[in-house]
Amino acid sequence: MRKPNFYSNQDYDRLDRFRDDPDWLAHVMRSDQTRLLPLWRGRHLVSEDHRPIAYPANKDRGLIDLASECVLLGRDNNQTVWLALDISAIDEAAASLIGDETDCFSDLRTVGPLIDRQSGAMLAHARAMLHWHRQHRFCGHCGSRTSSTRAGHLRLCSNPDCAQQHHPRTDPAVIMLVQDGDYCLLGRQPSWPSGMHSTLAGFVEPGESLEDAVAREVQEEAGVLITDIRYHSSQPWPFPSSIMLGFYATAVTTDISVDGIELESAGWYHRNQLLNSPENELFHLPRRDSISWQLIETWMKQGAS
Q1: Which of 33, 168, 204, 276 is most enclosed, with most CB atoms within 10 A?
Q2: Membrane-spanning residues where (predicted)?
Q3: Residue 209 sits in the same domain as residue 131
């Protein structure tokens, strides 16, 4: 059985049934079984050894007072309820006073590969939800302000003549490893860290299936035609709000053509070449918390010699 991709947690109860229960919500807001996860301008509070910092709700009421948004995340297997707090309104000096002297607010892109799977899922959920709140403060239908309800899982337009409901959004993107025998197709975007090569990827467009999106993106980015498109797995990717849908595909053509804009280069790489990747600034594979790495690693192990 394939293990879940990083940032996902199948055992995590999101407690939808309690989101409209004001008495239950009031209870958990002051319970010693509730933990508060503060986020400041999209960053998580972590310790010097990259451990996420959370606070008991019954002892750190001041954090709740600082929060512009509070989102019920869910309950873990230890029966701990988790809330995400957006404290972005405070300035940098005030943010530096939260936590111990060695604690700091860090981007999940930086600490993600260094934390455990359960913490990663919790932080990813918190980051995605609070990003959604920041991006939907105004109604896309009439322009009026919106307000948060349902424990942070719905925003309502304040204009009674509109009253639109805005639900959390996630943007589907396909990500695929194209193979040709013992070779696979990897590309490189200009904005990536020096030497990084990865699978091709792109957003799903309106009116197309996931398989259509896979074929289109590979042809657009690399000029390669494919067949035998096969689903592998998915991964939440809160940078800022995507769901990555992973696929394998088989090449029909192997000539590569890149436009230098989406990709600056692409190439076919032998399985053994990747197994012996130098992992340096000249060439390295994607970060280990990404589905792109999972696609590559699974393929490398299938027929290594």
Answers
A1: 204
A2: none
A3: no
The count of structural domains within the chain is: 2
Query: What pLDDT is stored for residue 259 in this prediction?
Result: 84
Domain at 284, CATH number: 3.90.79.10
Instruction: Return the higher-pLDDT residue of 113 and 231.
Output: 231
Residue 162 falls inside a structural domain: no
Specify the CATH number for the domain of residue 42. 3.90.79
Q: Residue 161: inside a domain, yes or no?
A: no
- The reply to whether 102 and 201 lie within a common domain is no
Q: Is the pLDDT of residue 144 over 60?
A: yes
What's residue 305's pLDDT? 46
- Model confidence pLDDT, tens digit, residues 155-180: 999 999 999 999 999 999 999 999 99
Token pair 């002892």 in the structure block, residue: 59
Domain co-membership, 190 together with 282: yes
Domain that holds residue 194: 171-302
Is 183 exposed, middle or buried (CB count within 10 Å of its CB: 0-12, 13-18, 19+)?
A: middle
pTM over 0.85: yes
